[in-house]
Write a structure and sequence with these properties.
Structural class: alpha+beta
Radius of gyration: 22 Å
Helix content: 40-55%
Strand order of the largest sheet: 2-3-1-4-5
């Protein structure tokens, strides 16, 4: 056997081993970025994809929060609550499609970033708002809820990064929840935001508690 043949025979199994190992590592990374309940990307995966999409000023950021979710869990059980979250995630992912990204940020809170090149986001989000409130197949008709939506167009706030845009969408979503309206857009005329920590409005998970310096009541 020639030296070249001998070298190839020794290297090929090693190369094949590294190829399998690389495939295994990529699979682990993919699973780590997916929420096991809904199949949506987790916060890290969402952030990675969203930052790329936000280079386009036509991109919009959407924040969705399930209304009265704790009461549903308490009244109908966690299995029903999980099924509801899965349905919301599936419907949101269908709306966003492959050109955007939808993620579960935690609990009953979801976010999405997608491009709105034709300026029809408000109309489409109104349709999504209705779709998210539909009953879930195979669940008791009593297990249903609405979803509050807030959104912001990246081009309205040039230079703002993902956390700042999420904060604006969060505040718009909160206003929609309080006023029981449809999707609410963060207006370009609103310059001052509630002071928060890690992009969370006061009173939300991860936000500063009331009374902390810098928090606007």
């Amino acid at each position: 056997m020639s030296t070249l043949a001998s070298t190839s025979a020794a290297v090929l199994p090693l190369a094949a081993g590294w190829s399998v190992h690389g495939w295994w590592l990529r699979g682990r990374l993919h699973r780590a970025r997916r929420d096991p309940l809904t199949g949506l990307v987790t916060r890290d995966g969402f952030t990675h994809r969203a930052r790329k999409l936000l280079k386009d000023p036509a991109a919009i950021v959407v924040l969705a929060d399930v209304d009265h979710f704790k009461q549903i869990n308490d009244r109908h059980g966690h299995a029903a609550g999980d099924a509801l979250l899965k349905a919301v995630a599936d419907r949101l992912a269908h709306y966003v499609g492959r050109d955007g990204v939808a993620g579960r940020l935690g609990g009953d809170e979801f976010a999405a970033v997608l491009r709105d090149r034709d300026g029809t986001a408000a109309d489409l989000l109104a349709v999504l708002h209705s779709m998210l409130a539909r009953p879930v197949n195979h669940l008791d008709a009593a297990v249903r809820t609405t979803v509050s939506l807030g959104w912001v167009r990246a081009g309205d706030f040039p230079g703002e990064d993902l956390p700042a845009l999420l904060r604006r969408a969060d505040e718009s979503m909160y206003a929609a929840k309080q006023q029981r309206t449809g999707p609410r857009r963060a207006g370009a005329g609103v310059g001052r935001l509630f002071a928060t920590l890690a992009g969370r409005r006061a009173g939300r998970r991860g936000a500063r508690t009331k009374g902390t310096p810098g928090v606007v009541a």
